[in-house]
Every structure is written in structure tokens, then in C-alpha cells.
Design brief:
There is one protein chain. The chain is an alpha/beta fold and 320 residues long. The chain folds into two domains: 171 residues, HUPs (Rossmann fold), CATH 3.40.50.620; 120 residues, Rossmann fold, CATH 3.40.50.1220. It is 28% helix and 26% strand. The strands form three sheets. A nine-stranded mixed beta sheet has the order 9-8-7-10-6-1-4-5-11, sandwiched between helices. The protein binds flavin-adenine dinucleotide. The site of flavin-adenine dinucleotide has 28 residues, from helix 6, helix 7 and helix 9.
């Protein structure tokens, strides 16, 4: 039975995502506990530069093929499924991102391996792998024991510090072939985010608005608060889905990752997909009438007062 811990390196055109380093840091801890090696899996085309940033791993297994140049769930699942069939791992860590969720679920079925998704922690307890994951938008944490010799865990970005896994170096690189390339799914184009709007990733202060605002007509008061604080307005996904704000303002998994000095969350519940995008803000203040809202687990300060009272009152105060 293999004791190795695998980490699937996530990248966009060879640019490694922070979550890869978060998983490598955690993977090192797990490999020490299991007594195996920490192995980074790199799928793509012409990725020598990326491999040299994976020094935290003992080894890199690389599948290099032109059809892996852009993410394609079918081809990537073929690559990962093949690696795991040839060289099983004790645990395979995948980022719980749009790419990783696709990949982990497909390979779980393909290779008949148990999968725990939405994980925020992974550990060994008496030799059994246990993953902690979030359910119901982060309101409940569940511990799942992973039965058997091997399993997959998809981990939410931001669950572990990235610094522990950030190490340049030249780990041994083993190359493996892609057994078959042409599937039914074809990569067509990468749609870059629209330009021309405020860049929320560069703002020191963000007043972020969620579904609690109820109507597009109420956005004006949030804009006023952002102006009074010298910042910009960002939002959760439902606001963008309703077309009340452009996609460039969306914070989260399928939006942008932000790290402002102040993140003022107004009427946002704090679903894991939202938290993923703002967790690293220096100061988080939340206004939410539900004391059980998950956002309060991340907020440094918070109030359960009604946002329709708090926002105008605060703006008044700031305007002096
Ligand atoms: C694959 C995937 C990707 C996703 N990507 C993203 C993403 O990038 N970003 C994102 O945000 N979401 C994303 N989501 C959606 C996410 O799961 C949540 O549905 C979403 O974040 C909820 O938005 P919200 O907090 O605004 O709304 P809700 O969850 O409805 O929360 C509204 C909150 O407002 C509070 N409230 C109501 N009235 C008041 C009041 N008067 N005063 C104060 N508080 C009040 C309520 O108590 C509630 O907590 C994604 C989901 C999936 C499946």
C-alpha cells in the first residue's frame, strides 16, 4: 500500500495558483505522518518552469502533452486517472476550485476512489485519513473518515498557509505518458474578464454587498458608504447573477480574489465560495442580521443590526 501523498498542481497557462502551495504545505505534514513521499502532479504542456517552483515536493510526476496545454476536464481526468492507476497514492489532494471539483469528481468515479469535497482540513487519526469539510454553505462542519487504502480530498482554497509550500528547487521529475488524447470535450477559448471597470483586486477598501440588500435600487447607499470610506463596491455572486453589478465586481471562487486592508461585508452570508475570495483581507467587518451566518467565523468585527440602519448611519458619521 502506497503511503505517498499527491498534490495536483493547479495552474493557468503555467502560472501556478497559490492553492498549489497551500496543498503542498499541508501535503508535507501528511507525508511526514504517513511515512511516504510528497509528490506534485503537473499536467500541461512545456511546464519545466512550473516544475522548478515545486521544490517543496520530493518528486514531480509530469504528464506533458499539447492537449493538456489548457484545462479540459476529460483529458485532465484521463491523465490523473492514469497516474493513480499506475502509481497509487495514499491520498491525493486537489484544489476545490472550478477546475479541481470537475477533476476530482471525474477521477473518483473513473478509478473508484472515495472523494471528500469542500474540505478545510485533512489529517491522519490512528492511521485513518480524516477530512473536515463544510456543508450547507459553511454552516456545518463534517468529519469524514476515508475508508480503504487510497482516496481523494478536494480542499477549499485558503484553508492552509501558502508559505509552507513555497520552495524553489529542482525536485526529481518523472514523466508519464498520456494514454489517450482525443476525447469528446474540446477546449475552445479562454474568456478573459472584461476590462474597463474598477479593479477590485487593487483596492484598499471594499464595501461588499450581498443578497441582503434586497433590490438594485438599494445599491446607492452602499456606493455612498464606499465613497465615504474611500473605497469601491464589490459583491457576492447573486448580485452579479441579477446583473445589478458587472462580473468584475464579484468576489469569490468564480469571481476575483481580493486582499484589501478593509473588507466590509454587508448582507453577505459567507458561503465557502465567497469566503475563498476574501478570507485574506486584513480586516473583515460584517453586517448580518443572522447571528449564525458563517461570515462571522471570519469577521474580526461584526454586528447583527439591520444593514438598512447601519449603512446610512455609518455613512452619515463618516461624512462628519
Ligand atoms: C461553483 C460555485 C461557484 C460560486 N462562486 C461564487 C463566488 O465567486 N462568489 C460568491 O459570492 N458566491 C459564489 N457562489 C454562490 C455561493 O454558494 C452563495 O450562494 C453566495 O455567495 C450567497 O450570496 P449572499 O451571501 O449574497 O446571499 P445569501 O446567502 O442569501 O445571504 C444573504 C445574507 O444577508 C443577510 N441579510 C438579509 N437581510 C439583511 C439585513 N436587512 N441586514 C443585514 N443582513 C441581512 C442574511 O442573514 C443572509 O446571511 C458559487 C457557488 C457555486 C456552486
Amino acid at each position: 500500500m502506497s503511503q505517498d501523498i499527491y498534490v495536483v498542481a493547479e495552474h493557468l497557462k503555467g502560472q501556478l495558483d497559490d492553492v498549489t502551495f497551500e496543498l503542498l504545505g499541508k501535503g508535507r505534514e501528511l507525508a511526514s505522518a504517513s511515512g511516504g513521499q510528497l509528490v506534485a502532479l503537473l499536467f500541461g504542456s512545456g511546464l519545466q518552469d512550473a516544475a522548478s517552483q515545486l521544490g517543496a515536493a520530493d518528486k514531480v510526476i509530469m504528464v506533458d502533452h499539447p492537449s493538456l496545454a489548457d484545462f479540459n476536464p476529460e483529458t485532465y481526468a484521463t491523465a490523473l486517472g492514469h497516474v493513480l492507476a499506475q502509481k497509487p497514492a495514499r491520498l491525493t489532494l486537489v484544489a476545490n476550485t472550478s477546475m479541481g471539483m470537475d477533476l476530482a469528481a471525474a477521477v473518483s468515479v473513473k478509478n473508484n476512489l472515495p472523494l471528500v469535497a469542500y474540505a478545510t482540513d485533512v489529517k491522519f487519526e490512528d492511521g485513518t485519513a480524516v477530512a473536515v469539510s463544510q456543508l450547507y454553505g459553511g454552516k456545518i462542519n463534517v468529519e469524514s473518515a476515508i475508508e480503504g487504502d487510497s482516496g481523494i480530498v478536494s480542499v477549499l482554497a485558503g484553508s492552509f498557509p501558502a508559505d509552507a509550500g513555497r520552495k524553489e528547487g529542482a525536485p526529481a521529475v518523472e514523466t508519464m505518458d498520456l494514454p489517450e488524447a482525443g476525447g469528446k470535450v474540446r477546449f475552445k477559448a479562454l474568456i478573459e474578464p472584461e476590462g474597463g471597470d474598477v479593479d477590485i483586486t487593487q483596492q484598499d477598501v471594499l464595501v461588499s454587498v450581498g443578497r441582503g440588500i434586497q433590490s438594485e435600487d438599494n445599491l446607492g447607499m452602499v456606493e455612498e458608504l464606499a465613497n465615504a470610506l474611500g473605497g469601491a463596491v464589490s459583491s457576492s455572486r447573486p448580485i452579479v447573477d441579477n446583473k445589478w453589478l458587472p462580473k468584475t465586481r464579484q468576489v469569490g471562487k468564480s469571481g476575483l480574489k481580493v486582499k484589501p486592508k478593509l473588507y466590509f461585508a454587508v448582507g453577505i452570508s459567507g458561503a465557502p465560495e465567497h469566503i475563498e475570495g476574501m478570507k485574506d483581507a486584513e480586516l473583515i467587518i460584517a453586517v448580518n442580521t443572522d447571528p449564525e451566518a458563517p461570515i462571522f467565523e471570519y469577521a474580526h468585527y461584526g454586528t447583527t443590526e439591520d444593514l438598512f440602519d447601519v449603512v446610512p448611519a455609518l455613512t452619515e458619521k463618516l461624512k462628519g
